[in-house]
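pasting for the record
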Amino acid sequence: MSARRALLTGASGFIGSRLAQRLLDDGWEVHLVLRPDSAGDALPAAGPRLHLHRHDGSTTQLVEIMRAAAPQAVFHLASLFLAQHQVTDVERLVQANLLFGTQLAEAMAQCGVRLLVNTSTAWEHYEDGDYNPVCLYAATKHAFSALLRYYVECHGLRVATLKLFDTYGPGDTRPKALNLLKRIANEGSSLAMSPGEQLIDLVYIDDVLDAFLQAWQLLANGGQAAAMAEYGVSSGAPLALRALAELYSQASGKPLNIEWGGRPYRPREVMVPWTRYQTVPGWQPKVTLAEGLARFHHG
């Protein structure tokens, strides 16, 4: 029996690289779509079931890649994340989060590929709104979902969109709060932070990968009733940044020198995460925060 085939975007990022490795470990043949300038440091080691495709930016070439890969599953994780954008960022945000995704959906439609696990963000739902984007990045992710509706209705795509909360794990070098805490713990330095009352919802990387695979399994088995569904990938137990810092101090065994209130909250700071989401049926997080923080610190 031949291996299942997946096409994956965003494999140069933290979550995408881990998902690519997980798929390989599970026996999949994996096709990665990368920009010509994407770094290969985080990619899985070369092997007979791993195929790299450098996308030249055109829709026609992406159709050729899709046809060659002939995947049973497409996992779309590529994006440009900017918590706050500058004027010069607008073109990059639209290209990465709208144009490329639309090219991907078009390639699927042209090649008869139907099952897509898409990635978005809980930041589409500021102050628990049905749609209230925290930033332009979140607005572009929502706009892509609107574009996907065309491919669902007219070309038979079936889409599960995972809206991620905060994610973390060993080897994560993204400029997030946990890495700031790790740095001052290891260096013994100090850090000015906001007052720290915002709630953080952290999901460990292994649980995030489980959610992606469970979402695909639902699509493949017909277990997702709607052709287009959205799921929140949440720990279900957010906690204040101050409390997170205390837990991290315990996990690392080191004191943290933090000046709480030393910097203001950023514009549209998410104080309380989105709550009105549906969880991926059959999925729940398994790694406790204490266990995950210990792995993160030592990883």
